[in-house]
Amino acid sequence: MFKILKYSFFDLMRSRWSYVYFTFYLALGFVLLFLNNDINKAIITLLNIIIVLTPLIGTIFGVMYYYNSKEFTELLLAQPIKRSKIFMGQYLGIAISLTLSLTLGLGIPFLLYGLFKSTAILDFGLLLVVGSFLNFIFVALAFNIALSNVNKIKGFGYAILMWLFLAVIYDGLFLISLVVFNEYPLDKFSLIATMFNPIDLSRILILLELDISALLGYTGAVFKKFFGTNLGMITSFIVMSIWVLLPVWRINLKLRKKDF
User: Fold this and answer.
1) N or C: which end of the chain has fewer CB within 10 A?
2) Which of 44, 203, 48, 50 lies closest to 35 in space, CA to CA?
3) Pair 177, 168: CB distance under 8 Å
4) Which tens digit of pLDDT belongs to each residue from 59-69?
5) How many domains, in total, are found in the chain?
6) Which residues contact residue 109 at a Cβ distance below 8 angstroms, ignoring those fewer than 6 apart?
7) Which residue range(s) make up the domain with 202?
8) Cα separation of 201 and 223, whole Å?
9) Cβ(62)–Cβ(134) below 8 Å
């Protein structure tokens, strides 16, 4: 599995899209810091970009890599290697390479602007951790979709629809439900509904650390009220870990039944 992971990792790192992804975050970091001249404000701005863009890139890369390397994967499957090791190696290679591009792309400009001398170093570290979680979650979800669909067009379509639902549609439906049932106690419903969306959970996790009450919104305020800042963050990390483990478990379950 380590050899396959290493191959997938270096294969993606040689890809021009990885350089584009890295360069985008590098330029974004320098531009935000140049315009704001304040690391704390730059982190808040990055939050809104990362929680939407990172899942999209992870989803596209995951589906694209699966379909493009299908012939090579079938060649590996003909060897005496466990299916789980092949696909886990590919999955980890993609997720780690995307996480490295994100970390280096944002880390370089912030380090040059004196991150270690700033009080926002923990906030920035949490931002990178959340971005890494989103990479691992959405690459795993993309692999699940690709494994379930032989047709490449359908696979890409379902993957984009999945991202669109979690990034945009889910929040709209959630808001409508809060408005329609505003006469009922919705605290527990809000907590549970938030945990079913890793993007919303990521947003609240960072806002709890930043302690920006004006930006927390209804769900974040309820989250803080029920759990408090520290317990809320621990709960968020546990749920995010479950969001990684469940799709990975389903990949291994799907591999046992799938006929290649």
Assistant:
1) C
2) 44
3) no
4) 998 898 888 88
5) 1
6) 26, 29, 30, 33
7) 2-257
8) 10
9) no
Enter the pTM of the model: 0.88
pLDDT at residue 185 tops 60? yes
